[in-house]
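CO-FOLDING WORKSHEET

Operator: S.A.
Ligand of interest: zinc ion
Run index: 490
Mode: holo prediction, single chain
Checklist:
[x] sequence pasted
[x] SMILES validated
[ ] output reviewed
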Amino acid sequence: MVGTPYRIVIGLEVHVQLLTRTKLFCGCSTQFGLPPNSATCPVCTGLPGTLPVLNRRAFELALRAALALNGEIARFTKWDRKNYYYPDLPKNYQISQYDLPFSKDGWLEIDTTAGPKRIGIIRAHLEEDAGKMLHDEKGGGRDSLVDLNRTGTPLLEIVSRPEISSPDEAKAYLEEVRLLLREIGVSDCEMQEGSLRCDANINLHVAQPDGSVAATPIVEVKNLNSIRAVGRALEYEADRHYQKFLEDGKKLGEEPKETRGWDEARGMTLAQRRKEEAADYRYFPEPDLVPVVVDDAWLAQARAALGELPAQQRVRLVQQFGLSEYDAGVLTRQGRALVAYFEEIARLSGDAKAASNWVTNQVLATLNEQKIDIGSFPLSAARLAELLVEVRNSGMPAQRSREVYARMLQTGESAKEAMEALGIKVIGDADALREIVTRAVAANPKAVADFKKGKTKAADAIKGAVMRETKGMARMELVQQLVLEALAKS
Ligand SMILES: [Zn+2]
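OUTPUT RECEIVED:
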């Protein structure tokens, strides 16, 4: 059995909190970090006699997301009650969408080692969030508290097809979802604050000696608080399934679906409960809300709000600026603001390749070091473009150009001012250089003799002497040209 070929099958359910000021069916604030139970009202705490009212903004953001995920938009969609009892759910049901979600059949393209891959999206629907349980706040393990601030917060649930084939692909999918939804202004996707959450379904398809394929029971892994945790948990589960399959063989196929929780500290998943099936929730249509009808105008408005999507942006950066796929990917991952910054430098300096190098190396390093985003970066695009032009015109060595950059950051000086302050004066004047070249030729008779014998490499010794004399501040092409001229004459 060892070495039995198998395939990992993963499907992801992603919940993102929409960037609305208020909750999905009431006017309570969605702001993170408010005092417990301060953002609540009779509607979201489920008091009798209250009625929900749909937050139009939430629906618009959800529409925008579904369009960006290439989903088919239903023109008629309704709400359903998902019934279950839990202390963080005072109504004892959650308003969600069951058989008529507002969007289905979308897809998202991810980058894999084998090239781009399209991951299908079964559906996207809107629902309200539950509250949050806090256990053992006082210590001693005797107290459980509930905070209902999150109750009724709008969530978009995005369910992928089981078309993800490795933990790395799962991470790539989540990164792409996060980038996309941030870029179109639908969610801030902060995993630490719970505005992007992910449950992962995984099993293995194992080839049998008789040619058939056996599938291990599907496990849903919960409590995944970072993209890294998703990768680790899925790697752990794939191994666990394989080991269990080797021990138990086909019997496994008879076990019910299981929910397991990821324990980050111990690096393992732990069994939680048997997975509920849809029938356990007794879904029925929500009688307190009217269905939503999406007309052409509303759809057109949502489409217009999309702007350029990351996938389109990557293609454009390659086509318009001649960047490599890799560089285009690095820039796009940083978001639209950084891409706009790059584009302005490329335009002002007339050199897209240099602009991309500077932005993806120096600028990104500075942003990471100072933990700021491009909006707070002290160098304007015009300032950095000026430095690029100075570097190109002067042939300034890379090391020195980085010194100028560092000084510009520190002092706010222009490239010219910083160069002057650092005593960087590039000798680009042929007459001034010619004198130095003449001296270098006279001081290196052996190199001259070697050059005359056909050892063209001997010219390097003379060029080196010139660069030493000028402290590396002479234009290399000019030195090259003048040295060859001088050698031809000598
Ligand atoms: Zn409320």
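REVIEW:
Residues 23, 26, 28, 40-41, 43-44, 152 surround zinc ion (CB under 6 Å).
The longest strand covers residues 115-128.
[x] output reviewed
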